[in-house]
Amino acid sequence: MESGGLRERKKARTRETILREAFRLFRERGYNATTVDQIAEAAEISPATFFRYFPTKEDLVTLDRFPPLLDALQVQPPGEPLTVLRGAFRTAFASLTAEEIAAGHAREVFSVTVPELLVANLRRSPGALREISENLADRAGCDADDPRIRNVTGAVLGVVTMVWLQWAQDPALDGPAEIDRALAHLESGLSLR
Fold this sequence. Notes:
The mean pLDDT is 87. This protein is 73% helix and 0% strand. The chain is mainly α.
């Protein structure tokens, strides 16, 4: 009988294999020309196993809740929402391996260059934004519908989105470090001096 830890590691390896093979095929053949059957074959799994990990092909490259960020938000001390979010991004990136960051970058490139994926990500945004706002509001001691929480969430995610778009164009960019610098600039009031 498999222990819980072993089972989770095996699931994580299978998930990473599916993602690695999918992105290899996407690079070789293009996103639209790659089928789930081809991905499953390359990952040496059945299509049914693929669908246990990803409900659709789109789910391979659309942004999810970014669990590392949400987990990091949970452990941030109470404080100003911008400071809390900046700390959460730092903590989230520190929890990822270089390979996980590279895989996330590959997902970002596809999510901003394939029109169907850009639309899919926009459809998923409200739920993720709500979850972030609720976590921030909890840390700030106010209501999630407080306009100040909306403003901070929008400003931070706008800045992060701009960095991600730049990172998609320039893979040599140190995305996590640039996000931190951009949030420090936002935190300082966006002065050009």
